[in-house]
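Incident log, support desk, overnight shift.

02:14 A customer reports that sequence design results differ from what the structure should imply. Their input is reproduced verbatim below. On-call engineer (initials T.W.) acknowledged and began investigating.
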């Protein structure tokens, strides 16, 4: 596996995680219809977090979620 795949998995997780938090914020602040979108993001996140520990980074270690912030314009 390549370092590129490792980084791509991290970036994908961070975008989905921040999008999930944003959708929950919207749902709790007057847009309850956003709960459905939040649930979809939760299932996407579940799949991503399960793949990360199985993605080698090139030096015999594996990836893990970082829970880092991603700017809104870069989220899904």
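02:41 Re-run completed on a clean worker. Output:
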């Amino acid at each position: 596996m390549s370092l590129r795949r490792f980084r791509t998995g991290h970036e994908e997780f961070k975008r989905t995680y921040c999008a999930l938090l944003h959708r929950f914020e919207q749902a709790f602040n007057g847009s309850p219809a956003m709960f459905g979108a939040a649930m979809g993001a939760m299932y996407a996140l579940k799949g991503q977090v399960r793949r990360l520990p199985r993605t080698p980074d090139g030096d015999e270690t594996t990836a893990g979620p970082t829970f880092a912030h991603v700017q809104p314009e870069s989220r899904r």
